[in-house]
Design goal:
The chain is α+β, with helices and mostly antiparallel strands and 170 residues long. It contains 4 helices and 4 strands, in the order H-H-H-E-E-E-E-H. The chain has a single domain, classed as Nuclear Transport Factor 2, Chain: A (Roll). Strands 1-2-3-4 form a 4-stranded antiparallel sheet, with helices on both faces.
């Protein structure tokens, strides 16, 4: 009993929460628990990542790129290197991790496309003057053998519910 009281006291004093890592809770700064974690096959983490605002920002950014390219193919890119990967944007994508950029300059969202090579794509976002994340850069990095295996697993039917549908034509 004394140990239990001591533990509760420590939790209260330090402000540490007793939520398990996979609970659908936000931390003291309002950040989802799945943010800033490594890519994982954990279905709770994939469900959480799918629900992030940043996931919708990626979807909207891909849709805007497709629309811009369709209506004005010679227009300047809004997202750096957006035309480089344009052929993939119509496909469903899966956010496999999201977190703060190492240098604290923005947010990186790592995702893969359902079709195409098993490359990991990065969407870099910055927070604008209105405190809203803006999709600014998309890039791709050749995956390691370990990531190729992970991408193959993500493409299994059991993970279909976590894929975000590709943008629809407007």
């Amino acid at each position: 009993m004394k140990i239990r009281i001591l533990l509760v006291g420590i939790l209260i004093i330090t402000g540490t929460t007793a939520f398990p890592a996979n609970s659908e809770k936000k931390d003291q700064f309002g950040i989802e628990w799945c943010f800033d974690r490594k890519a994982s096959l954990d279905e709770n983490q994939l469900r959480c990542l799918r629900s992030l605002d940043e996931t919708q920002i990626v979807k909207n950014g891909l849709a805007d790129s497709l629309r811009r390219h369709r209506t004005c193919p010679k227009c300047k890119e809004v997202i750096a290197d957006e035309n480089k990967y344009l052929s993939y944007y119509k496909y469903p994508f899966l956010v496999i991790s999201a977190g703060f950029h190492e240098q604290g300059t923005g947010i990186l969202v790592h995702f893969i496309f359902k079709q195409g090579p098993p490359e990991i794509f990065d969407a870099f976002m910055i927070v604008n003057d209105n405190n809203v994340n803006e999709f600014r850069v998309i890039d791709s990095f050749p995956p390691t053998r370990q990531m190729i295996r992970l991408v193959k697993r993500f493409r299994e039917k059991k993970f279909d519910q976590y894929w975000v549908p590709g943008p629809q034509k407007n």
